[in-house]
Amino acid sequence: MSKEIESKQKDWEERLKASEKKAPPRLPRFSTISDMEVPLLSTPIDFDREKFDYLRDLGFPGEFPFTRGVYPSMYRGKMWTMRQFAGFSTAADTNKRFKYLLANGQMGLSTAFDMPTLMGYDPDSPKGKGEVGKCGVSVASLEDMEELFSGIPLGDVTTSMTINGPAIVILAMYLAVAEKQGVPREKVRGTLQNDILKEYIAQKEWLFPVKSAVKLVTDTIEFGTKYYPGWNTVSISGYHIREAGATAVQELAFTLSDGLAYVDDCLKRGMNIDDFAPRLSFFFDVHNDFFEEIAKFRAARRIWANLMRDRYKAKDPKSWMLRTHAQTAGVSLTAQQPYNNIVRVAIQAVAGVLGGTNSLHTNSMDETLALPTDEAVMIALRTQQIIAEETGIANVADPLGGSYFVEVLTNRVEREALEYIRKIDEMGGMVAAVERGFPQAEIANSAYLFQRQMETGERVMVGVNKYQMTEEKRTLETLYIDRTVEKRQIQKLVELRKKRSKQACQDSLRVVREQAQAGANLCGPIIEAVKTYATLQEVCDTLRGVYGEYREAGSF
Amino acid sequence: MSAAQKNSKIRVLVAKPGLDGHDRGAKVIARALRDAGFEVIYTGLHQTTEMVVSAAIEEDVHVIGLSILSGAHNALVPEIIEGVKKGGLTDALFVVGGIIPDEDFDGLKKAGVHMVFTPGASLAEVVDYIHKNAPSRD
Fold first, then answer.
1. What is the pTM of this model?
2. ipTM
C-alpha cells in the first residue's frame, strides 16, 4: 500500500513542479505565524516516516495521552466554560458587569485586577498614580472583595482570578468572603492564576525575588490541596508569554517548564504528586495561525501526560490531564478597522474549540482601544454561543484527529517544545533559566523578528500593513474610566483605616511576619490578617520586609 | 552627513513609567532605534515619573519616548514633561506610544507631547519621525 502511495506521490510531485512553472507560488516560503515552514501537502508517507502509532500518539478522548481531549464525550457531555475576563474601576462597578455577564448566559466569572493591585500596592500609593481602576478592578482590602461578589453566591459560580505576585493575599480575601457567605469549603470552586514564573518571563508584574515567590505559590498549592478540593490552585499560563511575542513553540515549552518548576517545588516540600497535580490547570493563547494553534493544544496535552506519568510517576489519570483555559489573542487585534476584530476572534475561538480547550474567553473588538464596552463584550460572548450552538463543531471529539497535516504539525510542535524543555532542564529548571534571563531574551528576539517581518510585508495584518483605509474615521464607542475612581478608592481606604481595629490588624501582621521568617505556610496567617481588614499593601509590605523585592535589568 | 551619522548623535530615552508591565513594544522600538543608529537608553520597568525625569536629564537625551498601555498616560505624561523641562532640557522631543484613546490626543499635545504612536504604527514611521524631528544641539 505505502509503496504504491510513495510512487504515486513522486509522480504527483513531478506534475506539481510542472504546474509551478506555469503558476509560481505566491511567496518564496510558506510558514506559520511563528515562522515554522509548512509543507503544501501531508500524506500517509509522512505518517510512515514519523512512525505514527495511533494508540501511542492519539489514543481515545479521555484517555492517555489525551491528545484527543481530556473527557471521553468532550463537548457532548459538557460544553466548554464560557468565561469572559472582566474588571475595571471599583468593586461595585465590576460587580455590576459580573451580574450582566451571568444574566446573559456566561458560566463562570473571571476577574481582572488593576496594576496597583497586581503589584501589591494600595490605591493611595504614589507608585500607582493614575492606574487605579484602569486595567482592572481595584481591590485593596476584604471590604472591596465583599463588594465585588456582593449578591453572587460563591457556592454556585466558579471564579477565576488573574493575580500573581500577591495571589496568596487575594486568595485569602476570596476565601474569607466565601466563609462569610457560609459556603462549605468543598463548594468553593474556581482558579487562581498564581503563576509567578511567567511574570518574570513576560507579564512583568512581580513583587518578590523568584525563589520566595515560588515558595508562596507552593504554600497556596499545599493549602488548597488540603482544604479546598474544588479549587484550581495554579493556572500555568502561556497566554502572556505569547502576547509578549513568543512563538507557539516557545509559549508551549516555557509554560510547561513553569509547570514542572511548581511540581518540583511541591515535591521538595514532601507533597505527593497525585494529591496536587490534578488541581493544576493551564491557560493558553489562541492566535491567528489556525492549524498551528490546534496542534499546540493537542501537543500540550500529550507532552504533559507523558511527563507526569513517566518523569514523576503519577498514578492518578487526573494528574496526567492537562485541563486548559484559552483566550483569543489580544495582540492580533487591530485598532484600525476594529470591526474586523470580530472575525479574527471568531476564527481563533474555533481553533481553540478544535484544539479541545475546556474554557474560553473571547476578546472584544475594542480591546486595542480601551477596556471593552457592554456591547462589545456581548458580541464576544455571542461568538462563543454561536460556535457552541450553531456550527456543529461541539458535537464531535477532536474532529481534526488523523488529519495528515494536523498530526505532522502536532508532532513537530511537540518535538520542538521538548527540545526547549530539555535545554531549560539542563540550566537547572525554569527558576534558574528565568534568573539568567533565558526565556526573556528568546521572547524579545521573536517579537523583534515578527515586527521586522511586518515591516517588510512578509507578515500581513489586514488594515495595518495591507488593505489600509486612508482617512479612517473611528466610530466605535469606548469605555472611559473616570478619574474620580482613584479619589473614591483612596477615600474608602482612609475610612477603612479609621473604623477597623488597629490592634487586631497589627497583631495579625506581626504573625504574618514571624511565620514568613520561620518559613511556614502563610495561607492561614494571611487569611487571619485580611479578616482584620489589613490591606493588600500592608500584607505585601510585611512580606517585602522579609523577602526583599525583585529587580530586573532593563535590557532589550 | 548620512542618516546613520546624524542618528548616532541623537540620544533617545525609552521609558516605561508606572506599574504597567507591557514591555514588548518598548523593547521592540528600542531595538529598532538602535539598529537605525540612534543611541538608546532603556529605563526598564516600573519607573516613577521622578526616575524617568532624572534619567532623561542625567543622560542629556534629545528624545524621550514614553510607552504606556495601562491608561495612566494622562496622569503621568504631563508630570514627566514638566520635570524634564524644569531640569533644563527645554528642546527635548516627546513621543508617546501605547493604547491612547483618540480623545486624549489633544490633551497630551497641549501638555507638550510632539507625537503619539498607537498600535499598528510601523517601526519605519517611528524611526523616520525621530530622525526628522529630534533637536540638534551643536
1. 0.95
2. 0.89
